[in-house]
Amino acid sequence: MRKTEGVLRGEPFAFSVDGDAIQAYPGETIATAMLAADATGFRRDRSGRARGLFCNMGVCSECLVHVRDGDVSRRVRACLVPAAPGMTVETGIGE
Fold first, then answer.
1. Mind telling me which InterPro entries this protein's record contains (predicted)?
2. pLDDT, tens digit (0-9, with 9 covering 90-100), for 5-37
3. pLDDT reported for residue 9
């Protein structure tokens, strides 16, 4: 849940996580927007269990997601990469 009282933000925008629209505000990371939307699974481990945030500072890689740009997909740490309008993120959780 985002803090709203007394907070000034830019205009919200949408991006996609596993095909679902997620709302974000300028300056928010992918992870911040996902957590605010109750999307807490970022990847699956080798046993198939969903993994969430751990360190939230880019050290542990628990928040690795795929950002797709056309046919190209790159793995990024969701806690470090800013969300962008129209971005397509895939977690692999729904597979």
1. 2Fe-2S-bd_N, 2Fe-2S_ferredoxin-like_sf, 2Fe-2S_ferredoxin-type
2. 888 889 999 999 999 999 999 999 999 999 999
3. 87
Helix intervals (H) in the chain: 30-36
Burial class (CB in 10 A: 0-12, 13-18, 19+), 30: buried
Count the neighbouring beta carbons within 10 Å of the beta carbon of residue 63. 26
Sheet holding 20-24, edge to edge: 20-24, 13-17, 88-90, 64-69, 72-77
Q: In the structure encoding, which two tokens stand for residue 15, read together? A: 């991006």
**In sequence order, what are the residues at sequence separation of 6 or more whose Cβ sits closer than 8 angstroms to the Cβ of residue 5?**
none
- Region 40-58: mean pLDDT is 89
Q: How far apart are CA 31 and CA 15, in angstroms?
A: 12
78 SS3 class: coil
